Amino acid sequence: MRVRRALVIFLVAVGVLFAGYGTAYLASEDVRYVTRAGLEETRILQNARPLDELVANPGIKPEFRASLSLVRQTRDYAAELGLSAKETYTTFTDVGRDTLLLNLSAAPRNCICPHTWRFPIVGSIPYKGFFDFRKARLEADRLAARGYDIYLRPAAAFSTLGWFNDPLLSTALTRDSVELAALVFHEIAHNTLYVRSATPFNESFAEYVGYHAAESFFRARGDSTAARRALDRWHDEVVLGRYYAELTERLNAFYATKPDSVALETGRAEAATWARTQLEGPVGAELRTYRIGRLTERPINNAQLIGATIYRTRLELFDRWHLRNGRDVRHSVDEMKELLEGASGDSAYARLERAVTAD
After folding, report:
1. Which residues pair with 129 in a beta bridge?
2. Disulfide check for 151: which of 105, 130, 220, 276 has CB 3.0–4.6 Å away?
3. Nearest to 232 by CA among 247, 250, 215, 210
4. First-to-last CA distance in the chain?
5. CA dihedral 144, 148, 154, 159 (to 10 degrees)
6. Tens place of pLDDT for every residue, the chain, 359 residues?
7. Contact, 325 vs 331, CB < 8 A?
8. Beta-ladder partners of 154
9. Distance in angstroms (rounded) separating the CA atoms of residues 350 and 69
10. CA angle 133, 137, 138 (to 5 degrees)
11. Alpha carbon 256 to chain centroid distance?
12. pTM, 2 dp
């Protein structure tokens, strides 16, 4: 019933969109994009099935039931922590493919400056999600032809920020219980606090909530191994955040010299060599759960670098905030909401930095 009600509300909104923009649909790529996203959300909501119904079904595979049960327990714990769980993840949708959508990031080759897209409600965003993979690649090719670094990456889940009762999607399921729990907390964190035009803050905040809430959840269940692993994952995110910040700083200093095309390629290659040395040396040695793997083989790609830092921006500030609030997730989130009331854009980090350095 709740899904149907959300669907009706959405269809009314789409009707208003068409009534207000009529012929704009034919002329505006943005309107076509929003409409396609709306139709995909409609399909996801229409195909959603109650999680409780699936868990009670004796015919489902045991590992599938275990994952759904974990999501249900995690979601309930999020509500206990005071996060805005609402009806998020009380249903499940099989999207019928292994990748839900492709996120596109772009940046000039001589500047770590994200190309941004602007949308209602959320403001400016440094990436764009595509359900239509062909259009994603066409947009990527168009930007590459203009001299941009481009980065297309798959996304397994997304949040509608509480506007709809987001179902758990089949693409989000993973055998890693810590990552699955952290994902649930991450997405629900977006329902709880979202700062307009502040994507790095929003994603980094959700990463902080995701892993620390997961640690609290598993510790409350008596699973100290999983709780430790959640904290180790967060530790690795902080380590990688520092690495990407230093790499970005080096590149920014180089790009500020305004190199010509030959010098640009030489400088980027030198930066890639430095990055490889760091990953194979001190950075890799600090990591507890992540494997460097083929990361050392990557050339410099400003768009990819932006994509990597979006979720790892100034994470040390969230560590200090967590400590300042007694390592209590619920209290930390409540205080953060109060701290950031009315904030937007860069003011979110400015307020957080002032708060953790005030004592």
Report:
1. 103
2. 105
3. 215
4. 50
5. -130
6. 333 344 443 443 444 333 333 443 334 455 555 555 666 667 777 778 988 999 999 899 999 999 999 999 999 999 999 999 888 889 998 887 777 788 899 999 999 999 988 776 666 788 888 888 888 999 999 999 999 999 998 876 665 655 567 888 888 887 799 999 999 999 999 999 999 889 899 999 999 999 999 999 999 999 999 999 999 999 999 999 999 999 999 999 999 999 999 999 999 999 999 999 999 999 999 999 998 887 778 899 999 999 899 999 999 999 999 999 999 999 999 999 999 999 999 999 999 999 999 76
7. yes
8. 102
9. 39
10. 115
11. 29
12. 0.83
Residue 55 identity = V
